[in-house]
Amino acid sequence: MRILLMGHPNVGKSVVFNRITGANVTESNYPGTTVDYEKGYVRIGHEEMEVIDVPGTFSLEPKDKAEEVAVKMLERNKDSVVVCIIDSTKIERGLYLALEIIERGSRVVVALNMWDIAEDKNINIDVEKLRQILGVPVVPTIAVSGEGIKELVSRISGATSVKIESVMKNVGGS
Amino acid sequence: MKLSVDERWDIIDKISKETVKFGEYRHTLKDALAEITVKPLTGIPIAIAVLYGFWSFFGAFAGFFTDGFLVKLFDGHWLPWLQDVFPGGLGNWFYSIMVDAGHMESGVLVAADNCFESFGVLTSGLFVAIGVVLPAIIAFYLFLIILEDSGYLPRLAVLIDTVFHKIGLHGFAVVPMILSLGCNVPAVTATRNLETKKQRFMMMTLLAIFIPCGAQLGIMLDVIPEYVGFVMLYLFLGFFVFGFILNELIPGKSPEMILDVPPYHMPTGRNVGRKLWARLRGFFTVAIPFVLLGVVFVNVLYLVGVIDWLANVFEPVLVGWFGVPKETTAPLVAAFMRKDLAVGQLMGIQEQLGMVAFNTYQLVTSVVLVSLYFPCIATVAMIIKEGMQDRGKGVITFLLGSLAVLMAVVFIWGGLLHLIWIILGVA
């Protein structure tokens, strides 16, 4: 099984990738560090899974070559689990990409990365509620220090795809 | 089912209302820092200070190790020792390639007394790679990685945006440009962040021609420290002049791009160390073999007479148009392999010819020519690879286009420098 790490530029996909696979992908604090995909492996239970660090993309309508790579990766790997990494301080636009991926029918796990910075900025996110509405696992993470990564990995094998209609129902029904 | 853009934002609105609470936000030191580094009034002086700091650190670090320690080691101990123990001796072909070709002084073949002049694989090759370039790139990458990880680079991009727009590139083009100062090869890959084919073509071509790499910068700093500033300024000026012209000439769009500026982070020692190590490993495994091979390549061409033949063929152009001695042919050939090697070789040639036949202004012109005239082989390979991905079958036009720009630049920008020296009365 394949795992795709997707998200906006500079949310820390490469940091999560290095944490999960023990690889040495370049991490920098500017958008657009990863322009091509990188592969690595992680063992979950007894299964060895391939992890792909996908270049950052704002949406699934590509604007530059690095984004095209990202969208092609998703289209070619329809049966893979997508770990959608969101910058917790900019959760709305991260959710936009997450919804687009959910709509395409992929199995999704959401990582709310940079959780510490969100706390510093006094942004409170109700993780449990978000999990209920989206119907997919949601895990707060601080990739640079490794917090939450273990839980994130443990949620990957249990990920299921959800219908966007059910998300609409969940959000409308309260 | 697929939603429309509006429907998606509508759902996100609702989700966010239910799950996210924005508490009171206090302005922190980080925010203050973030603000003063992007506002032009304070940002530009800070940028100049940062770049000046970069420059000083680079010079001090590289100078300390190279001049204070490694030059003495190589010239004082390594070279005499090799000249002593290496089999063959002056005049032997294998000895010339590996240690010292010697040079003619009033009709007699004499041995070299420093590692620039000797031009052997084990002398000049190792000296340029380890003695001069290694300290320079350690200093360069260390500073660059800290800039990368802290989040300062995108802020620099915001500041430079206005100038870059004039040449049809957006501020983000500063990232490949700065990477290019380290090595052109990763910089070519980084151009993928640019949006249109026009922009990528322009950026690849311009950076391959005008931006000297870290290795070349390091050796320039060692051999012509007082002129490096001028050379850099002349090259950057060329970058913008030709960028402006290309932008006017090439059809295609240069759309605006909204740049996301990340918050500042304290760089972690672990990541800095890891990245520095990755870059150095690349230097040891790729660059050093190329430097050594380059020496072999040029020496073999010397021995079979190809260099002398080329020098005579190009003499009218070199002397007449650029105003440099015909002996600069060999470094120009070496520059195909490695630019740092070429600059080192120029230095050796100046010492052999003497200051009268090859004065400092001519040296500066030849250093500029070495930078301009052809990207090193590793960069060419990368440009071909990226060009193929970008254009498919159009790659031929792409490469020919690049080559045409290159030829025009070498003749115009190189010739202009000669003209400047003539006007100043020093040529």
What does this structure look like?
The complex is a heterodimer of chains A (174) and B (427). With 174 residues, chain A is of the alpha/beta class. Chain A has one domain (2-172): Rossmann fold (3-Layer(aba) Sandwich), CATH 3.40.50. Helices cover 37% and strands 23% of the residues of chain A. Chain A has 7 helices and 7 strands; from the N terminus they run E-H-E-E-H-E-H-E-H-E-H-E-H-H. Chain A has helices at residues 13-21, 65-76, 91-103, 115-120, 127-134, 149-156, 164-172; strands at residues 2-7, 38-44, 47-53, 81-87, 107-113, 123-125, 138-140. In chain A, strands 2-3-1-4-5-7 form a 6-stranded mixed sheet, with helices on both faces. In chain A, a hairpin with a 2-residue loop joins strand 2 (38-44) and strand 3 (47-53). The model of chain A has no long low-confidence stretch (mean pLDDT 87). With 427 residues, chain B is mainly alpha-helical. Helices cover 76% and strands 2% of the residues of chain B. Chain B has helices at residues 5-19, 29-38, 40-85, 93-98, 115-118, 121-150, 152-166, 174-182, 184-190, 197-210, 214-223, 228-249, 269-303, 306-322, 329-337, 339-353, 360-373, 377-391, 395-424, and strands at 20-22, 103-105, 108-110. A two-stranded antiparallel sheet of chain B has the order 2-3. In chain B, strand 2 and strand 3 form a beta hairpin. In chain B, helix 3 runs antiparallel to helix 6 (121-150) and helix 9 (184-190) runs parallel beside helix 18 (377-391). Chain B is globular and about 90 Å long. The interface between A and B is large, with 47 and 50 residues. Strand 6 of chain A pairs antiparallel with strand 1 (20-22) of chain B, so a sheet runs across the interface.
